[in-house]
Amino acid sequence: MNEYNIIVVGVGGQGVLFISELLGEAALKEGLNARVAEIHGMAQRGGSVTCNVRMGEKVRSPTVMEGSADLIIGLEPLEVLRQMKYASEETLIFLNEAPIVPPSAHLSGVKYPPLDQILGEISRVSKKVLTVDTVKIALKAGNPATQNTVMLGFIAASERLPVRAATLKKEIEARVPAKYRDVNLKAFELGREEYEKRVGGLAPPGL
């Protein structure tokens, strides 16, 4: 595999950087070149956060070019729509269904668009979209902050990443502080189970 390009997007506090760094480390562990570029935005105040993750045998630059993403991992629906410049009709999109409405929208009276409308706009570019309520599953795991780990498990079960689920799990064990390790591992497994339950281990039509 020459290269595999991933965009990870969400808002500050959702763990975008954690997913990106973990994917990069997992790729290195499997003998691939990996580059991660962090674009924080207003991460500390719940603003947009986007990361570029590139892995493969010939990867040198960390920057994903517009229209060249193989995968978009979206922790917030509207943020995915904002970053569709990276997508093409071949891009796979795994998207968390639960929105985070920015405080500015409340203050200005701007309405957050319905999920169906957001998905409709995304499908104009790529129809290879699979959604999951990571917050609901994270609460089931025991900590709402593990939604990023739920998403990793969900995607790992699809076998669409160039890195194995076992490698990702080992990176979680290595990188998460001891007091949060068990709940994150549980979230990862629940994410995998959710994919298997919904898709049966096979990619859905179009994916």
Can you give a write-up of this model?
The chain has 207 residues and is α/β, with parallel strands linked by helices. The chain has a single domain, classed as Pyruvate-ferredoxin oxidoreductase, PFOR, domain III (Pyruvate-ferredoxin Oxidoreductase, domain 3, 3-Layer(aba) Sandwich). It is built from 8 helices and 6 strands. The chain has helices spanning 16-29, 77-82, 103-108, 115-122, 134-141, 147-158, 165-175, 178-199, and strands at 4-11, 33-39, 48-56, 71-74, 92-96, 129-132. Helix 1 (16-29) crosses helix 7, helix 5 crosses helix 6 (147-158) and helix 5 crosses helix 8. The longest helix has 22 residues, at 178-199. It is globular and about 50 Å long.
In short:
This protein has helices spanning 16-29, 77-82, 103-108, 115-122, 134-141, 147-158, 165-175, 178-199, and strands at residues 4-11, 33-39, 48-56, 71-74, 92-96, 129-132. With 207 residues, it is of the alpha/beta class. Strand 2 (33-39) and strand 3 (48-56) form a beta hairpin.
Spatial strand arrangement across the major sheet: 2-3-1-4-5-6
Give the count of helical stretches. Answer: 8
CATH fold description: Pyruvate-ferredoxin Oxidoreductase, domain 3
How many domains, in number, for the residues? 1
Assign the CATH class: Alpha Beta
Strand percentage, roughly? Answer: 15-25%
Topology pattern, helix = H, strand = E: EHEEEHEHHEHHHH
Largest sheet: 6 strands, mixed
Mean of pLDDT: 90
Structure class: alpha/beta
Helix content: 40-55%
Shape: globular
Distance between the termini: 19 Å
What's the architecture, going by CATH? 3-Layer(aba) Sandwich
Number of strands: 6
Radius of gyration: 16 Å
| CATH-level-4 superfamily name | Pyruvate-ferredoxin oxidoreductase, PFOR, domain III
Low confidence ranges: none
